Amino acid sequence: MADFQAMIKTELIGKDLMAAVQKMNGATCYAIMPKTLKDDSGLGLDEAIEQIAEFVQGITKSDKPPFNAEDIQGELKAFVDISKVRLVLRQAYLFIQKHSEETEKEKDVTEYAFNIAVLMNDGEFEQAEASLFKVKELSFAVWSCDRQMILDTMDILDLTDIDKAIENAAKLEEKKKAAVLIAQKDEQDEKAGESEEEKPKEEEPEEEKPKEEEPEEEKPEETGDK
Questions:
Q1: What backbone phi and psi angles, to 5 degrees, belong to 34?
Q2: 24-71, pLDDT tens digit by residue?
Q3: SS3 for 42?
Q4: Rounded to whole angstroms, how far apart are CA atoms 87 and 78?
Q5: Distances (CA, A) of 223 to 188, 218, 220
Q6: What is the pTM of this model?
Q7: Distance between start and end Cα atoms, the chain
């Protein structure tokens, strides 16, 4: 049988996401690829976290959610007053591989990563008393994934290995700088192309036509009579 994949539009925290579902080698795979999403009004902290946790739990069929709102609240309270915040999903990644045969269950895979922005409902962040930083922007990530490309895409620095984190951060910064330079060059090329189109075309000088030689006047023939 030919390969078959279903593409499904689903929703998470008010965002439309495209999920791919494919059966192969006795397993069913579910995947959502990371994609930068536009900001919107978002949802309250509790509702947003519960939606994500239930979403992952529903697909994995696990007995309990991978995380809960209380855990996330406890972490965020160290930075800001969370009573007036809302959450906006920035990026989502999901890869789940479920085998139908019991003997193959050990090969099951569950990977996810979510990058979430924390926004104030009104005005600036109200700082937590114990916070070491003045918070101007805040986002957080929850993940269960070792794929470095996914972590880099979502700006996740895994600090369990600080040397590796520093190296990856440096590489990521270089990539961002290169992307900015490419974007600037593309913009310059586009502007240059527009200015070339706007320039009035120079009229080509008319070719000088060769002067026609005037016919010589015929001299009257001399006769012999004088």
A1: -65, 135
A2: 877 888 899 877 777 666 788 888 888 888 888 887 777 888 888 888
A3: coil
A4: 17
A5: 85, 15, 9
A6: 0.66
A7: 119
